[in-house]
Amino acid sequence: MKSKPQADIGIFSGSGMYEFAADQIETVKINTPYGPPGDLIEIGTIGGKRVAFLPRHGRKHSIPPHKINYRANLWAMKELGVSRIISPCACGSLQKDIKPGEFVVTDQFVDRTKGREDTFCDGPEVMHISAAEPYCPELRKLATAAIRAEGAVGHNGGTIVVINGPRFSSKAESKWFTQMGWHTVNMTQYPEVVLAQELGICIVNIAMITDYDAGLAGDVPEVTTKEVVRMFQSSVGILHKILIRLIKEIPAERKTCRCLQKVDEAYFC
Known about the structure:
Blueprint: E1 9-13, E2 23-28, E3 41-46, E4 49-55, H1 70-79, E5 84-93, E6 103-105, E7 108-112, H2 137-149, E8 154-156, E9 159-163, H3 171-179, E10 184-186, H4 189-198, E11 202-212, H5 225-249, H6 261-265
Parallel strand pairs: 1-4, 1-5, 5-11, 6-8, 7-9, 9-10
Antiparallel strand pairs: 2-3, 3-4, 5-10, 6-11
């Protein structure tokens, strides 16, 4: 009987990143109680670790952000035994000191989405997961170090506001986000981050800045998909290097984070 595929680390990739270099790659199809994930999952070896790779939007970018089956994607990673997830994404900058081509290791989010299935506990079992520190501090420290070790500019900490999409923000919305002091804007980090927490999976977001968002001081060009993709493609090489370095540095055992402990604390009994 063939053994069930297993992985240590999962990667959810964003717009413009549909493949990942690894050794001993196998492609697996997983069914979940929430339907199929966004695409087949590739599992390969990097630095002695088994890594599962899944493009959020599918390899043909056929799934818009508000239609991604986030619960299936996360559940599939759990089925593979994944305990850590790296979640890179393309983002717009909301602050002038965060420039296109740079990276932000996110530590907080603001949810501005609507209608997304954002919990595995729809009753009768109920949990209230803490989202006070949504991104794993242990992984954030390692990610920041990996970015800087590869010679890129990395901002340690930042608030990502997640909009529903698929449209970009209006200038008025974007200006409001900037005035609130938030740092980046994206369409996919929520509910991905909280679903990972409900499963006790550590998650880290590496936000690649592709543009200044439309309302930033009112003096930047409007955001276009072509420009986002162009900027992402120009930076995806360094992102690959960052991810490979990070994967190699992640220890086998969790040492200092509370990501798994929070699951037990989320139930009434």
